[in-house]
Amino acid sequence: xxxxxxxxxxxxxxxxxxxxxxxxxxxxxxxxxxxxxxxxxxxxxxxxxxxxxxxxxxxxxxxxxxxxxxxxxxxxxxxxxxxxxxxxxxxxxxxxxxxxxxxxxxxxxxxxxxxxxxxxxxxxxxxxxxxxxxxxxxxxxxxxxxxxxxxxxxxxxxxxxxxxxxxxxxxxxxxxxxxxxxxxxxxxxxxxxxxxxxxxxxxxxxxxxxxxxxxxxxxxxxxxxxxxxxxxxxxxxxxxxxxxxxxxxxxxxxxxxxxxxxxxxxxxxxxxxxxxxxxxxxxxxxxxxx
Length: 290
Prior knowledge:
Elements: H1 6-14, H2 21-38, H3 52-68, E1 72-77, E2 83-88, E3 99-108, H4 111-117, H5 130-133, E4 143-150, E5 162-166, E6 177-183, E7 186-192, E8 197-202, E9 207-212, E10 223-229, E11 237-243, E12 249-251, E13 265-272, E14 276-282
Protein backbone atom coordinates (compact mmCIF):
# COMPACT_ATOMS: atom_id res chain seq x y z
CA UNK A 1 0.00 0.00 0.00
CA UNK A 2 1.08 3.54 -0.72
CA UNK A 3 1.58 5.79 2.32
CA UNK A 4 -1.15 8.47 2.59
CA UNK A 5 1.34 11.32 3.14
CA UNK A 6 -1.61 13.34 4.50
CA UNK A 7 0.42 16.16 6.06
CA UNK A 8 2.65 16.54 3.01
CA UNK A 9 -0.34 16.75 0.70
CA UNK A 10 -2.05 19.32 2.89
CA UNK A 11 1.03 21.54 3.22
CA UNK A 12 1.86 21.36 -0.50
CA UNK A 13 -1.72 22.23 -1.44
CA UNK A 14 -1.96 25.04 1.12
CA UNK A 15 1.14 26.79 -0.25
CA UNK A 16 0.36 26.22 -3.93
CA UNK A 17 0.22 29.99 -4.51
CA UNK A 18 3.05 30.95 -2.17
CA UNK A 19 4.28 34.45 -3.15
CA UNK A 20 8.02 33.66 -2.99
CA UNK A 21 8.91 31.91 -6.29
CA UNK A 22 11.73 29.84 -4.81
CA UNK A 23 9.47 28.30 -2.18
CA UNK A 24 6.53 28.02 -4.55
CA UNK A 25 8.73 25.88 -6.81
CA UNK A 26 9.75 23.67 -3.90
CA UNK A 27 6.12 23.06 -2.93
CA UNK A 28 5.39 22.28 -6.57
CA UNK A 29 8.21 19.72 -6.51
CA UNK A 30 6.53 18.08 -3.51
CA UNK A 31 3.20 17.93 -5.37
CA UNK A 32 4.94 16.47 -8.43
CA UNK A 33 6.64 13.79 -6.32
CA UNK A 34 3.31 12.92 -4.72
CA UNK A 35 1.82 12.60 -8.20
CA UNK A 36 4.61 10.18 -9.14
CA UNK A 37 3.89 8.23 -5.96
CA UNK A 38 0.19 8.10 -6.90
CA UNK A 39 1.05 6.95 -10.42
CA UNK A 40 -0.50 9.98 -12.09
CA UNK A 41 2.82 11.40 -13.33
CA UNK A 42 6.07 10.00 -14.70
CA UNK A 43 8.04 12.62 -12.79
CA UNK A 44 9.76 15.88 -13.66
CA UNK A 45 9.06 19.44 -12.58
CA UNK A 46 8.90 22.01 -15.28
CA UNK A 47 10.29 25.33 -14.17
CA UNK A 48 11.72 23.87 -10.94
CA UNK A 49 14.70 25.78 -9.65
CA UNK A 50 18.07 24.11 -10.09
CA UNK A 51 19.78 23.76 -6.73
CA UNK A 52 23.49 23.64 -5.93
CA UNK A 53 23.13 19.89 -5.37
CA UNK A 54 21.60 19.54 -8.84
CA UNK A 55 24.53 21.47 -10.31
CA UNK A 56 27.00 19.27 -8.43
CA UNK A 57 25.35 16.08 -9.64
CA UNK A 58 25.30 17.28 -13.23
CA UNK A 59 28.93 18.34 -13.01
CA UNK A 60 29.93 14.95 -11.57
CA UNK A 61 28.10 13.20 -14.41
CA UNK A 62 29.86 15.36 -17.01
CA UNK A 63 33.25 14.63 -15.44
CA UNK A 64 32.52 10.90 -15.29
CA UNK A 65 31.47 10.93 -18.94
CA UNK A 66 34.65 12.80 -19.92
CA UNK A 67 36.80 10.39 -17.90
CA UNK A 68 35.17 7.42 -19.62
CA UNK A 69 36.40 8.81 -22.96
CA UNK A 70 39.97 9.42 -21.76
CA UNK A 71 42.65 7.32 -23.45
CA UNK A 72 44.81 5.11 -21.24
CA UNK A 73 47.93 3.06 -21.87
CA UNK A 74 49.73 1.31 -19.02
CA UNK A 75 52.51 -1.26 -18.86
CA UNK A 76 52.93 -3.95 -16.24
CA UNK A 77 54.99 -7.12 -15.97
CA UNK A 78 53.67 -10.63 -15.37
CA UNK A 79 55.41 -12.93 -12.90
CA UNK A 80 57.17 -14.69 -15.76
CA UNK A 81 58.49 -11.35 -17.05
CA UNK A 82 56.13 -10.99 -20.01
CA UNK A 83 54.73 -7.53 -20.69
CA UNK A 84 51.07 -6.77 -19.99
CA UNK A 85 49.63 -3.78 -21.86
CA UNK A 86 46.45 -2.35 -20.34
CA UNK A 87 44.59 0.09 -22.55
CA UNK A 88 41.29 1.85 -23.19
CA UNK A 89 40.05 4.34 -25.79
CA UNK A 90 43.22 4.21 -27.87
CA UNK A 91 43.16 5.80 -31.31
CA UNK A 92 43.06 3.07 -34.01
CA UNK A 93 45.69 2.87 -36.73
CA UNK A 94 43.04 3.55 -39.37
CA UNK A 95 39.90 5.64 -39.05
CA UNK A 96 37.07 3.38 -37.96
CA UNK A 97 39.50 0.52 -37.40
CA UNK A 98 39.62 -1.86 -34.44
CA UNK A 99 43.39 -2.26 -34.01
CA UNK A 100 46.13 -0.01 -32.62
CA UNK A 101 49.71 -1.10 -33.15
CA UNK A 102 51.89 -0.89 -30.05
CA UNK A 103 55.57 -0.13 -30.57
CA UNK A 104 57.77 -1.38 -27.73
CA UNK A 105 61.35 -0.12 -27.43
CA UNK A 106 63.89 -1.77 -25.12
CA UNK A 107 66.82 0.06 -23.49
CA UNK A 108 69.24 -2.05 -21.39
CA UNK A 109 70.19 -0.24 -18.18
CA UNK A 110 73.52 0.04 -16.40
CA UNK A 111 71.95 0.19 -12.95
CA UNK A 112 75.04 1.25 -11.01
CA UNK A 113 75.84 4.08 -13.42
CA UNK A 114 72.25 5.34 -13.40
CA UNK A 115 72.06 5.09 -9.63
CA UNK A 116 75.37 6.87 -9.05
CA UNK A 117 74.51 9.72 -11.40
CA UNK A 118 71.07 10.34 -9.89
CA UNK A 119 70.28 8.02 -6.97
CA UNK A 120 66.95 9.48 -5.96
CA UNK A 121 65.62 9.59 -9.51
CA UNK A 122 66.33 5.85 -9.62
CA UNK A 123 65.30 5.07 -6.07
CA UNK A 124 62.08 3.17 -6.69
CA UNK A 125 61.91 -0.14 -8.48
CA UNK A 126 58.14 -0.21 -7.96
CA UNK A 127 56.83 3.25 -8.82
CA UNK A 128 56.84 5.95 -11.45
CA UNK A 129 59.75 5.57 -13.88
CA UNK A 130 59.21 8.81 -15.81
CA UNK A 131 62.24 10.56 -14.29
CA UNK A 132 64.59 7.69 -15.12
CA UNK A 133 62.97 7.25 -18.53
CA UNK A 134 63.83 10.80 -19.63
CA UNK A 135 67.48 9.75 -19.82
CA UNK A 136 66.63 7.34 -22.63
CA UNK A 137 64.57 9.76 -24.73
CA UNK A 138 67.47 10.52 -27.09
CA UNK A 139 69.03 7.04 -27.01
CA UNK A 140 68.66 4.48 -29.78
CA UNK A 141 66.82 1.41 -28.44
CA UNK A 142 68.56 -1.94 -28.39
CA UNK A 143 65.47 -3.64 -29.80
CA UNK A 144 62.02 -2.73 -31.15
CA UNK A 145 58.93 -4.97 -31.13
CA UNK A 146 55.51 -4.29 -32.68
CA UNK A 147 52.29 -5.82 -31.34
CA UNK A 148 48.63 -5.35 -32.38
CA UNK A 149 46.15 -4.27 -29.70
CA UNK A 150 42.52 -5.20 -30.27
CA UNK A 151 40.24 -2.25 -29.50
CA UNK A 152 36.92 -4.06 -29.73
CA UNK A 153 35.45 -7.53 -29.43
CA UNK A 154 36.32 -10.05 -26.77
CA UNK A 155 36.15 -9.39 -23.05
CA UNK A 156 37.01 -6.10 -21.36
CA UNK A 157 37.47 -5.36 -17.68
CA UNK A 158 35.54 -2.77 -15.68
CA UNK A 159 35.72 0.63 -17.35
CA UNK A 160 36.35 -0.96 -20.74
CA UNK A 161 40.02 -1.61 -20.00
CA UNK A 162 41.54 -4.28 -22.24
CA UNK A 163 44.76 -6.20 -21.70
CA UNK A 164 47.22 -7.76 -24.10
CA UNK A 165 50.27 -9.85 -23.23
CA UNK A 166 53.47 -9.46 -25.22
CA UNK A 167 56.34 -11.93 -24.62
CA UNK A 168 59.48 -10.40 -23.17
CA UNK A 169 62.29 -10.89 -25.72
CA UNK A 170 64.62 -13.64 -24.49
CA UNK A 171 67.59 -11.27 -24.71
CA UNK A 172 66.14 -9.16 -21.86
CA UNK A 173 64.59 -11.72 -19.53
CA UNK A 174 67.65 -11.78 -17.28
CA UNK A 175 68.58 -8.10 -17.67
CA UNK A 176 67.50 -4.75 -16.29
CA UNK A 177 65.76 -2.93 -19.10
CA UNK A 178 63.72 0.24 -19.57
CA UNK A 179 60.69 -0.34 -21.80
CA UNK A 180 58.90 2.38 -23.75
CA UNK A 181 55.46 1.68 -25.23
CA UNK A 182 53.74 3.90 -27.82
CA UNK A 183 50.24 3.10 -29.08
CA UNK A 184 47.16 4.98 -30.22
CA UNK A 185 48.58 8.40 -29.42
CA UNK A 186 49.67 7.41 -25.90
CA UNK A 187 53.11 6.71 -24.42
CA UNK A 188 54.35 5.10 -21.21
CA UNK A 189 57.64 3.91 -19.71
CA UNK A 190 58.44 1.27 -17.14
CA UNK A 191 61.63 -0.34 -15.89
CA UNK A 192 61.96 -4.10 -15.67
CA UNK A 193 64.34 -5.29 -12.96
CA UNK A 194 65.42 -8.90 -13.31
CA UNK A 195 66.46 -10.14 -9.89
CA UNK A 196 66.11 -12.97 -7.42
CA UNK A 197 66.77 -10.78 -4.38
CA UNK A 198 64.64 -10.19 -1.32
CA UNK A 199 65.89 -7.15 0.60
CA UNK A 200 64.55 -6.74 4.13
CA UNK A 201 65.25 -3.34 5.68
CA UNK A 202 65.06 -2.55 9.38
CA UNK A 203 64.96 1.23 9.04
CA UNK A 204 64.99 2.03 12.77
CA UNK A 205 68.36 0.32 13.14
CA UNK A 206 69.85 1.13 9.74
CA UNK A 207 70.38 -2.47 8.73
CA UNK A 208 69.36 -4.60 5.78
CA UNK A 209 69.41 -8.30 5.02
CA UNK A 210 69.62 -9.89 1.58
CA UNK A 211 68.23 -13.35 0.88
CA UNK A 212 67.37 -15.34 -2.22
CA UNK A 213 63.79 -14.62 -3.26
CA UNK A 214 62.93 -18.27 -3.90
CA UNK A 215 65.01 -20.24 -1.39
CA UNK A 216 65.29 -17.73 1.47
CA UNK A 217 69.03 -18.44 1.68
CA UNK A 218 71.14 -15.52 3.01
CA UNK A 219 73.34 -14.04 0.27
CA UNK A 220 76.84 -12.95 1.27
CA UNK A 221 79.22 -10.65 -0.61
CA UNK A 222 76.37 -8.79 -2.30
CA UNK A 223 77.48 -5.25 -3.11
CA UNK A 224 75.60 -2.40 -1.38
CA UNK A 225 75.99 1.26 -2.34
CA UNK A 226 74.36 4.00 -0.28
CA UNK A 227 73.64 7.65 -1.08
CA UNK A 228 71.96 10.23 1.14
CA UNK A 229 70.31 13.61 0.77
CA UNK A 230 69.83 16.38 3.31
CA UNK A 231 66.44 17.65 2.14
CA UNK A 232 63.55 16.66 -0.10
CA UNK A 233 64.56 17.31 -3.69
CA UNK A 234 68.19 17.67 -2.65
CA UNK A 235 71.15 16.29 -4.58
CA UNK A 236 72.20 12.80 -3.57
CA UNK A 237 75.68 12.39 -2.10
CA UNK A 238 77.74 9.25 -1.61
CA UNK A 239 77.41 7.88 1.92
CA UNK A 240 79.12 4.46 2.03
CA UNK A 241 79.41 1.12 0.28
CA UNK A 242 80.42 -2.42 1.11
CA UNK A 243 79.37 -6.06 0.98
CA UNK A 244 76.89 -8.16 2.91
CA UNK A 245 78.17 -10.49 5.63
CA UNK A 246 77.96 -14.28 5.69
CA UNK A 247 74.47 -13.81 7.16
CA UNK A 248 73.51 -11.54 4.25
CA UNK A 249 73.46 -8.45 6.48
CA UNK A 250 74.77 -4.92 5.99
CA UNK A 251 74.83 -1.88 8.29
CA UNK A 252 74.15 1.00 5.93
CA UNK A 253 74.20 3.90 8.43
CA UNK A 254 77.28 3.52 10.67
CA UNK A 255 80.00 6.07 9.94
CA UNK A 256 82.58 7.97 11.97
CA UNK A 257 81.21 11.28 10.67
CA UNK A 258 78.04 13.31 11.26
CA UNK A 259 76.26 12.68 7.94
CA UNK A 260 73.54 10.62 9.63
CA UNK A 261 72.34 13.61 11.66
CA UNK A 262 71.93 15.57 8.42
CA UNK A 263 70.23 12.80 6.44
CA UNK A 264 66.65 13.24 5.27
CA UNK A 265 66.58 10.12 3.06
CA UNK A 266 68.75 7.21 1.93
CA UNK A 267 68.87 5.65 -1.53
CA UNK A 268 70.32 2.14 -1.48
CA UNK A 269 71.52 0.00 -4.38
CA UNK A 270 71.82 -3.74 -3.71
CA UNK A 271 73.61 -5.47 -6.59
CA UNK A 272 74.63 -9.06 -7.25
CA UNK A 273 76.33 -10.25 -10.44
CA UNK A 274 74.46 -13.54 -10.15
CA UNK A 275 71.10 -12.50 -8.73
CA UNK A 276 70.41 -9.02 -10.12
CA UNK A 277 69.82 -5.61 -8.56
CA UNK A 278 67.33 -3.83 -6.30
CA UNK A 279 67.06 -0.13 -5.41
CA UNK A 280 65.35 1.09 -2.26
CA UNK A 281 64.45 4.53 -0.88
CA UNK A 282 64.61 4.51 2.95
CA UNK A 283 64.09 6.99 5.78
CA UNK A 284 66.91 7.39 8.34
CA UNK A 285 66.72 5.63 11.73
CA UNK A 286 64.55 7.18 14.41
CA UNK A 287 67.67 8.49 16.15
CA UNK A 288 68.63 10.42 13.03
CA UNK A 289 66.51 13.04 11.29
CA UNK A 290 62.78 12.44 10.90
